[in-house]
Model the fold of this input.
Amino acid sequence: MENEEGGIRINKYFTMIGYCSRRAADKLIDEGAVQINGAVPEKGTKVMPGDVVTVHGQVAERQEEKEHVYLALHKPVGIVCTTDQKREKDNIVDYVNYPTRVFPVGRLDKMSEGLILLTDDGEIVNHILRERHGHEKEYIVTVNRPYDEAFLPTMSKGVHILDTTTRPCKVEQLSPTTFRIILVQGLNRQIRRMCEALGHRVVKLKRVRIMDLDLDLPMGKWRHLTENEVKQLWGKK
Done:
């Protein structure tokens, strides 16, 4: 396993073999779906050379000599960004129905629509989601009633949710009930929680950009990323 005699943390192992992101791996471990040599590991457990790692009883193996897959999808409302095909019938994996295993890069909640990426490259998932890189994600948001003059400035400075204050962000008014927001972090249901904290309810949320990739697909359709688009995700020109 790349000469790592001291072993590799189990969540990193999953990204190295292209199975899923570290975040998704941690969730699988929490659910008890992962075993190493027949034993359920903790999150910090290391995989040693020769160990057998399984997920739901199936061996998780590296697929050698294959090109990574990178997809862009215009996710419709009602599809859940999870790889759990057993527990969630409206999961994104079955919806895309790609012939080889792919998993979503981050998440877009069930009632939201817009651009989401899917891949089998765990390393690029970690690169895109790593907050310190400051990667932008842009959304168009509609709330249930007109907002006042203080609403957008307050959003831009940061809102206290989930025992923290959100990072400063860019916002722009589009109509009395609609605005554009650009985030560089991805807290759970962040935009919805920010609006709720300011007394508004989101009635429509659409992600229109991830980094330099704009939403250019009809609802429900997906496409492969171009080679140049993948380079852009890695920050290469």
Q: What stands out?
A: The domain at 8-59 is CATH 3.10.290.10 (Structural Genomics Hypothetical 15.5 Kd Protein In mrcA-pckA Intergenic Region; Chain A). Helices lie at 10-16, 22-30, 92-96, 122-129, 151-157, 190-197, 227-233.
